[in-house]
Amino acid sequence: MHIVSHEVPLVWYLILSAVLFCLGIVGFLIKRNLITVFMSIELMLNAVNLSFVTFAHQWHEVKGQIFVFFVMMVAAAEAAVGLAIIIAVFRARSTLAVDRIDLMKL
Amino acid sequence: MNEPLHLWLIPVLPFIGFVLNGLLGRRLPKAVVSAIALLAPLGSFLVVLFASRAALAHTEGYGTWITAGSFNVDITFVLDQLSLVMLLVITGVGFLIHIYSVGYMHSDEGYWRYFAYLNLFLFFMTTLVLAGNALVMFVGWEGVGLASYLLIGFWFQKKSAADAGKKAFIVNRIGDFGFLIGLFLLIATFGTLSFSDLAARVAANPTMSGGVLTVIALCLFIGATGKSAQLPLYVWLPDAMEGPTPVSALIHAATMVTAGVYMVARTHFIFDRSPLALSVVAIIGAATALFAATIGLVQTDIKRVLAYSTVSQLGYMFLGCGVAAYSAAIFHLITHAFFKALLFLAAGSVIHAMGGEQDMRKMGGLRAKTPITFWTMTAAVFAISGFPFLSAFFSKDAILAATFASGSLGKLLWFVGLVTAGLTAFYMFRLWYLTFFGETRSHDAHPHESPWPMLGPLVILAILSIGGGWIGASRFGAFLSPILGTSTEEMSGSLEYIMMALAVAAGAVGWFIAHRMYHQRSAAAQLAAPAPAGYNLLQNKYYVDEFYGLTIVKPLIAVSKYFLEWVVDIAILGGLAWALGALAVFFGAILQRWQSGNIRSYAAWLALGAAVLLYFVLAPHVFGAPSLHLGMAGH
Amino acid sequence: MHLILFIIFAALCLTGAVNLLFQKQPINSALSLIVVMTSLAVLYLLLGAEFLAAAQVIVYAGAIMVLFTFVVMLLNAGREERTLGSQAYRTVGFPAVAAILAVIATSFVKLQGFGNARIDDHITSTADLSAVLFTKLLLPFEVTSVLILVAILGSVALARKGDAEGREPK
């Protein structure tokens, strides 16, 4: 690995994206508050966005960035609807603890 | 051999009668049912008559049944001298009994069913006799057993009749097992079941004797003891009297029970090579003859006496076979068909006259009330007792002569046969006196003569019983010799006349004793007085049924219940089924814990699945495979 | 220069993400996520994606995270409780995550032909983006607007005060 003073190997961006993605999964697994779980999902989406932009940079493909654009749109819509669902669940069950919401079981 | 004789018509006509009466008979008027039922045996009889003019032996094949490697079984019918005489008896006497049944079963509700079964029986019996190989014969063999079961248990609402039908079928099956083993051994030894092929192969092997042939012969003979009611499998025949009397006449006197004798005669070339088997056949025949005659001495039911008489006379036939006098045995078979059928039909007429009463102690004085029945039965009684120049005189004599001429064992068996002849005369005349002579001992019955459909066959059979033996044993033997071979024993003329005289004397002695005991005085107590223990033994048929029940039936039932039902059925099979269910529940319970509803647990398993998927998608490109070239063309 | 910027903001990303995991109060987690979003915006700039950097700040940090904060405060989400649930997340989840990280990282590292980030001549302007977006990908663009409309309607319907059958609130 050769470090020139103002050059960053692209691979580092990709590794960062992978690490952020996995941190997002870990957050999904260990957080007990519904909203926080949702935030971890947003983190995962952002990590993927970063890797898209990196690939777009490598190959000079603007389509990579457009994909990121669409991901953002979908994430916005998803956040709105998801938070609305969380509010509805809170109203029904009076709790935001993930472990308490377990009616879908045998 | 050239023009087809359409032998298939002989079994098929009764089969058509069976199908028509069986399917439609319930709705047809009695006249139509009778017409269908009578036309069938008449048609078969006419075909047999027509075919008898052709050159024998005539074989007709109707296609291949089994082909397995080098083993073939075809459906062939063979008409030779032996099957011809059997067919004449079966269809002829059968036709007469059908006519009789029209009168006897007139008021029965199951009229159509009766005639359907009777035609079915004829179909199977003619198949048995016409068969050109042992497997087709076995089809007929089993079939007549089935027809016998159906007809014995004809009044199936009566428990004793249903039980008797079952007993007949089961005991027959035991014999059939022996028959099957014999068939298997025949296939294993000779590779064929066709009678002509077997005869040729045995003849081509002059030194072959004993060994496997003995085993085959004995196995086949076991089948014959079952079907023809010899020791030890005779027990079904007396119980079979539960069926209608014409059934007893046709099946259990004239035709079905003779199938065993016919089979032994057909396969005589095997028996000829095994002196041991022949001795066994002769000994069992003679022993059965004596055994059954002793039981018949004290029976009070008129049909039981005739049943034991049938067993006894069949013993004579097997005795004849056992001394290799096959044609004599067949001769006796034919004369027996005449007089035994006549005896049964006349007994049926007597029972009809007495309004259903079968106990001889309640009969008497029927001579004046039912004259035609009396005279025809008289002819039969005299015939069976060996009265000179009647039919059985010739046939019984031929057997006894051949027996005497066969070595030292033969002389012993001849003596047994002689004693049996005396006993036969005794119990037949006892029956005669008790039924027809003296005062009427029953005050409720109003005896009347039977209608003409019943009397006509009696007359015809009486004529046959009287004159049926005139052809003479030697001419009969010559007629059958192409099939059965010739008897090698020659007897000097004077010895033969002495034997004849002795046989007649034995019969006369029996008649005389019966006359003293039953004509001048009355009651069966005469026999009981001197030897009460012996009398009880005989009256209870030597307790054979009870013995079988104890040693065979009870253990079988115990095994079925305690082992098969409790252990195998409930514990093992039921336990297996239960275990399978428990296994499913167990695994289900394990898997159920996975569906906990806990979102984080679900997420964890999702992550695991995603890891596996990612690995399998990326691994070909990343690990081992040539390294990643994600360049895109033309960028 | 580029390198130093990258290191600073990458570190900020990671710190924010880790902080999101460790905070007990949801509001703190939300604020950490905002830090992550803005750092990512800078990283996009370093990769030459101007428009996306702006969009990231406006949409993600400015709208979505604000929405999150609103909901946190609306529901008065307090300290996370300790619950006793299944431990599957630890026994199955952590190894799975490790496996995912390993697979993705390895496949990234093994990529050929990836050099360094060079922003001198690879800046993608908004004009370049819109040239593709409004010509070749016009349909998906319009569909996205419909998507957002649907999302608005859905969230209004779901979050309305009333009972499960959707009756009007009293």
Instruction: Please write the string of helix (H) and strand (E) elements of chain C.
Output: HHHHEHH
Total helices of chain C: the number is 6
**Strand order in the sheet with the most strands of chain B:** 1-2
Poorly predicted regions of chain B: none
In the predicted model, the low-confidence regions of chain C spanning at least 5 consecutive residues are: none
Shape of chain B: globular
Oligomeric state of the chains present here:
heterotrimer
Structure explained in plain terms:
- Chain A has 106 residues and is an all-alpha fold.
- Helix content of chain A is 75%, strand content 2%.
- Chain A is built from three helices and one strand; from the N terminus they run E-H-H-H.
- In chain B, strands 1-2 form a two-stranded antiparallel sheet.
- The longest helix of chain B has 49 residues, at 544-592.
- In chain B, strand 1 (58-68) and strand 2 (71-79) form a beta hairpin.
- By secondary structure, chain B is mainly alpha-helical.
- Chain C is an all-alpha fold.
- Chain C is built from six helices and one strand; from the N terminus they run ααααβαα.
- Chain C has helices spanning 2-22, 26-46, 50-74, 88-109, 126-133, 138-159; one strand at 116-117.
- Chain C is globular, with a radius of gyration of 21 Å.
- Chains in contact: A-B, A-C, B-C.
- The A-B interface holds A 25, 28-30, 37, 59-61, 98-99, 101-106 and B 592, 595-600, 603-604, 607, 631-632, 635.
- Strand 1 of chain A pairs antiparallel with strand 1 of chain C.
Please sum up the structure shown.
Chain B is mainly alpha-helical and about 625 residues long.
